[in-house]
Write a structure and sequence with these properties.
Layout lengths: L4 H16 L9 E11 L8 H21 L10 E6 L5 H12 L3 E7 L6 H16 L15 E5 L18 H7 L2 E4 L17 E4 L13 E2 L10 E4 L4 E8 L3 E5 L2 E2 L7 H9 L10 E8 L7 H5 L1 H13 L6 E5 L2 H12 L22
Parallel strand pairs: 1-2, 1-12, 1-13, 2-3, 3-4, 4-5, 11-12
Antiparallel strand pairs: 6-7, 6-8, 9-10
């Protein structure tokens, strides 16, 4: 049976029932914001420095070809967001990824693994990461203020101490993240792990409740015309059951938006991502799809850089970018957040106009 299905299963059932009564959908063009959030860990499995650099150089060599071959409705290339692991910081690795960002292919954000930590220790780790990353132009907003901003993915999906105390240790992580400059968390979904929240397929504000781990299990949806609530925005990716892919010939497989070598982004998966209709309440015509990957793992290169990646993007562009029913926008995590804020503040026009709405480009783009 599915692990921890009591946490996430009821929410999937409720959403499926609700969608059954809303099949008419919204009128007019639907805009698809598509973001790839990469848990980028070149040091995976204790790699030597030589192997780490080889993994990064693979992206420098091959990603431009993929990105330039695929354009959205605005003519922009595919965007990739490298959530680089701060706990395995290597200046040469960051320099190489920043080179791709300067060429307009994506953004660098923050990923962190930590275990048995304290609030003070976590704050120190974030401060050190910001100092190191900013030396490469990452996380430094280019609006003249010199301020810092970052999107976050927690290592081992243990956000806010949500894995029985493992891989974290800090119960008030959301408030610390916000105070250090985090604009949104992109960790979820994590099913079938116990760190998966009961709230799924949502964009919402979560509140840090003192001494309560996993206080982001629920929260308040971001609403068009509403205001910020709680401590931090969480931007979730799709979570569903894929009945076209069976387990043991009977059970559906869990769809959690992970792109990998043995499960590339196929048409049935892409359709499921769109069908979850993750949006700001009151703006159902702006759909946000955040999928994730582990880009430094060799077994996943074809799914992310090769033929399988081409086929996924070709399907996206052929089915969800006809200019009438759908318009496709390739976005980074930062741009996705900015467009969400524009929807919340009821800004009109094409969502692509709002890519830099709140947080400007990072300094490596100057």
């Amino acid at each position: 049976m599915f692990r921890n299905v009591d946490i996430w299963g009821p929410a999937i059932l409720r959403q499926k029932i609700k969608r059954a009564f809303r099949r008419a959908g919204c009128a007019g063009t639907r805009h698809i914001m598509f973001c790839i959030a990469d848990h980028f860990e070149p040091g995976w499995r204790g790699a030597t420095r030589k192997r780490r650099l080889e993994r990064v150089k693979t992206w420098v060599r091959h990603y431009p070809r993929l990105a330039e071959s695929h354009r959205d409705c605005e003519g922009r290339p595919v965007q990739h967001t490298w959530f680089c692991a701060a706990d395995e910081y290597d200046p040469a690795c960051l320099d190489n990824i920043a080179q791709l960002c300067r060429r307009g292919f994506g953004d660098i954000e923050l990923h962190l693994h930590h275990e048995n930590d304290t609030p003070g220790g976590f704050r120190d780790k974030l401060a050190e990461a910001i100092s190191l990353f900013s030396a490469h132009g990452a996380l430094v907003t280019n609006r003249g203020t010199g301020g810092y901003a970052f999107g976050f993915i927690h290592g081992n999906w243990a956000l806010n101490n949500s894995r029985d105390g493992k891989w974290c240790g800090v119960d008030n992580e959301l408030a610390i993240l916000k105070s250090c400059g985090c604009y949104a968390d992109f960790t979820l979904p994590s099913a079938p792990l116990e760190s998966q929240t009961r709230k799924i397929n949502s964009i919402y504000y979560a509140e840090d409740i003192p001494d309560r781990r996993k206080s982001h299990d629920t929260g308040k949806d971001v609403i068009a015309g509403g205001k910020e609530k709680g401590d931090l925005m969480l931007i979730q990716g799709p979570l569903a059951l894929n009945w076209k892919r069976k387990k043991y010939l009977i059970l559906p497989r869990i769809e959690n938006g992970c792109i990998q070598g043995n499960d590339p982004g196929s048409p049935d998966r892409v359709d499921l991502w769109v069908d979850q209709s993750i949006h700001v309440r009151g703006r159902p015509d702006w759909i946000f799809i955040k999928v994730f990957c582990h880009g430094a793992q060799e077994a996943d290169y074809d799914a992310l850089l090769g033929g399988a990646a081409d086929r996924m993007l070709e399907y996206l562009e052929s089915e969800y970018n006809d200019g009438t029913r759908y318009r496709l926008h390739y976005v980074t995590a930062r741009e996705m957040y900015n467009i969400i804020k524009a929807a919340e503040e009821v800004r009109s026009g094409d969502p692509g106009w709002h890519r830099d709405y709140r947080i400007g480009p990072y300094r490596y783009c100057s």
